[in-house]
Amino acid sequence: MRTAGYPPTRPPFETGARSMPLVVQLVGTHRSGKTLTLTTVVRALRRSGRTVAVLKHSHHRLDLPGSDTDRYVRSRADAVVFASHRTVAFLPVDAVRFASRLPVDVLLVEGFHLRHLGRRFRIERPAEAPSVARSILAYVRSTPVRPRRRRRIPP
Fold this sequence. Notes:
Order of helices and strands: EHEHEEHEEH
CATH architecture of the domain at 22-59 and 93-142: 3-Layer(aba) Sandwich
CATH class of the domain at 22-59 and 93-142: Alpha Beta
Largest sheet: 4 strands, parallel
CATH topology of the domain at 22-59 and 93-142: Rossmann fold
Number of helices: 4
Distance between the termini: 38 Å
Number of strands: 6
Strand content: 15-25%
Shape: globular
Strand order of the largest sheet: 2-5-1-6
Helix content: 25-40%
CATH superfamily of the domain at 22-59 and 93-142: P-loop containing nucleotide triphosphate hydrolases
């Protein structure tokens, strides 16, 4: 499968030197246990001292037609930052490329089933969450992660 400018043979984040986060992708149908699995993985990785970011795919739109955000995007601004009291979004940005540059050890991706972004795991139902979480953790722990310079991310 070919995705947006990437060669079909390898995920867009595989590099010789691990300067970007280790990317782990979890796909599954609605209510299959993806979030349950990844929250388990996040807690375990944080306990082991790893820094973790999660990129969650959503079909909900922030740039609704006619909204101010949409007007800024259509004006071809290089970036539009949407902020509310609990949400920040960068538009128009390739979310995957943006997240891959976060100063973390592991990037967990929930969804994006049409794109192959890293080591991919699949879940079919919530009962599989513990075993899928164990598989993800085993993979992450077996993959050398080059220490990244730690930067404090402001609140």
